[in-house]
Design goal:
Layout (H helix, E strand, L loop, with lengths): L2 E5 L2 E3 L7 E2 L1 E5 L2 E6 L1 H5 L6 E4 L4 E4 L1 E2 L5 H7 L3 E2 L6 H14 L8 E6 L12 H4 L8 E5 L4 E4 L1 H7 L12 E5 L6 E7 H4 L1 H6 L5 H17 L2 E9 L1 H12 L6 E7 H8 L13 E9 L34 H13 L3 E6 L2 H18 L8 E4 L5 H9 L3 E4 L2 H14 L1 H5 L5 H6 L5 E2 L10 H10 L16 H7 L2 H6 L17 E4 L16 E6 L2 E5 L1
Parallel strand pairs: 1-6, 2-7, 8-15, 9-10, 10-11, 15-16, 16-17, 17-18, 18-19, 19-20, 20-21
Antiparallel strand pairs: 1-4, 2-3, 4-5, 7-22, 11-12, 12-14, 13-14, 22-23, 23-24
Helix pairs in contact: 2-8, 11-12, 17-18
Length: about 550
């Protein structure tokens, strides 16, 4: 039956009036009518009636930044997120080897360790991993995705053995003190460079396709109906095109092309036309300007509160790209009317993005509404927000940093004063700027209710509040993961609010977030997720 009527509920429309209705009529994948029970039930002929029994409907959540293919890959890997010490870290790999028959030259790959939760706070290194094996290559990425630890065998295969090796631009190979011998800790492009990534074995195409289907179900379980892959290279693009062609994509996936692949695509500007092909489309380009604050590779204007061991007292992270390179990239994107999403965690990186994008706009003379997006914008300053507003730049905040790493930011990364100001959502709201919330999967799961919770409460796991003045209302937090997300992706006319004619992308919650105590927002359950009228998840 193509027509459904949901009634007896709390329908939070997120439209301009913040209208709360009792019922909604969905037909042929779109919203036909919203209003009182009496009004919607007048349409009951040939309709399936669904009594919500007081449950709440919101617009489907929109993930404004993430990496669905990387999340698919991460589900296949050893997960170290719960590991709390280096000894436990080593033991987990040993247990994996015992329970799995390792083929010759087969890598052990894992992710998610967080050294900030270790007692001494240090990263594992090759000497730790060599205790497991010097013959089997081992690579485990940090929770941020910006650092990896490897053993001697992996260093050899990656070209970092001995003391005579080259490191890709934008990368760092940490070394044993007073030598150039690799320590086994790789930062940024030292392992993320495309040539280095080709050395690390990837899962088969068929396996990835199967996991892509599973990962979409994971997104849907969190109420997400539109997501991103912000790491589109040639392989990822081909994978998603094949999945699209074979009707394997059930939620909308928006792709952003990494710099190295952009030139190839720009040979045919028709590759970006802002239209979905079976739920997949490309919308723009992606660039990185710095690293991660919790890994202490983000580029700050002032030194880290606790400088990493063996670093100069003025260490404040580092840039990944020179101005000339990024200006040329922005120019090519602007000339081809591409939106850019740019990774900036540190305020120095944020300033580089603002200055270089303004220069590219000036050179091209562009007046297009391209909505450039500053991804993370974690330490963006109030003055920078003012500059961003003038050029229509949108900050997308990773508010969950407060929950996962807020105490570490306060005690070690930024110190009390700067930690209070991270992800300044309320200051952005006061400036009447659009902003969104994301979780950067696979860094964290796409749990939008947790993002709402963190924006409203700004409470760390120890109970400390980071930035009382930056708290926002529940309604404004809901808007950030619905309408604002649609606006960021140029889809505000078809998504993001529940209005007649828009797509029937809905999420049903067991409780009304506008009525529960704010401390319980993260505990609200997703009951059902609906994409264009079709249920794609049900509890």
């Amino acid at each position: 039956m193509n027509k459904k009527i949901y009634f007896n509920g709390n329908i939070i429309t997120v439209d301009k009036k913040n209208f709360i209705a009792e019922g909604i009529v969905v037909e042929d994948g779109a919203i036909k009518l919203i209003g009182s029970n009496d009004l919607v039930l007048k349409e009951k002929e040939n309709a399936k009636l669904i009594d919500l029994k007081g449950k709440t409907i919101l617009p489907g959540f929109i993930d404004p930044h993430g990496h669905i293919i990387a999340l698919s890959q991460s589900l296949m890997l050893l997960n170290f997120k719960e590991v709390k010490s280096i000894d436990e870290f080593i033991e987990k790999i040993k247990e994996y080897i015992k329970s799995n028959k390792q083929k010759e030259n087969e890598w052990i790959i894992g992710l998610g360790y967080d050294n900030s939760s270790f007692e001494d706070g240090r990263h594992p290194n090759k000497f730790d991993l060599d205790k497991v094996s010097k013959e089997i290559p081992i690579l485990i990425t940090h929770a941020s995705g910006h650092v990896a630890v490897v053993n001697s065998k992996a260093l050899e295969l990656l070209g970092y053995s001995g003391e005579d090796y080259e490191v890709p631009k934008g990368g760092i190979v940490q070394t044993v003190k007073e030598s150039k011998e690799a320590l086994g800790i790789l930062e940024e492009n030292a392992f993320l460079d495309s040539e280095k990534k080709e050395i690390i074995p990837a899962p088969t195409f068929e396996t990835l396709l199967n996991f892509l289907v599973k990962t979409q179900k994971l997104y849907a379980s969190y109420g997400v109906t539109t997501c991103q892959d912000a790491s589109i290279d040639k392989n990822n693009h081909e994978l998603l095109k094949i999945a699209s062609k074979n009707n394997m994509i059930k939620i909308d996936i928006i792709g952003y092309v990494i710099q190295q692949f952009t030139k190839e695509l720009l040979k045919n500007t028709a590759t970006i036309d802002a239209k979905y092909n079976n739920h997949y489309k490309l919308l723009g380009g992606k660039a990185w300007l710095d690293g991660s604050p919790q890994a202490k590779t983000a580029w700050l204007t002032k030194p880290y509160y606790v400088v990493p061991k063996d670093m100069d007292k003025n260490y404040s992270g580092y840039r990944i790209q020179e101005d000339e390179t990024i200006i040329e990239y922005f120019k090519s994107c602007i000339e081809n009317k591409w939106q850019v999403n740019v990774h900036c965690n540190g305020d120095a990186a944020s300033q580089q993005f603002i200055d270089c994008y303004k220069k590219a706009m000036e050179v091209t003379g562009s007046k297009e509404d391209l909505r450039p997006v500053m991804i993370h914008a974690q330490t963006v300053t109030y003055n920078q927000l003012d500059e961003m507003k003038k050029i229509g730049m949108i900050p997308s905040y990773f508010l969950d940093h407060i929950w996962y790493w807020g105490d570490y930011h306060y005690d070690s990364v930024l110190g009390p004063e700067r930690a209070e100001k991270i992800s300044p959502a309320n200051s952005t709201l006061k400036r009447e700027m659009n902003f969104t919330f994301h979780q950067d999967p696979p860094v964290a799961m796409p749990n939008m209710m947790l993002a709402i919770h963190n924006a409203v409460n700004r409470r760390t796991q120890s109970g400390r509040v980071l930035g009382e003045n930056e708290k926002i209302s529940v309604m404004d937090a809901i808007r950030a993961v619905t309408y604002n997300g649609a606006y960021q992706c140029f889809e505000e006319n078809i998504k993001g609010s529940l209005e007649v004619g828009k797509l029937a992308d809905l999420v049903i919650l067991d409780k009304n977030p506008l009525e529960v105590p704010v401390e319980e927002l993260k505990d609200i359950k997703i009951i059902e997720t609906i994409k264009e009228g079709n249920t794609i998840f049900k509890l």
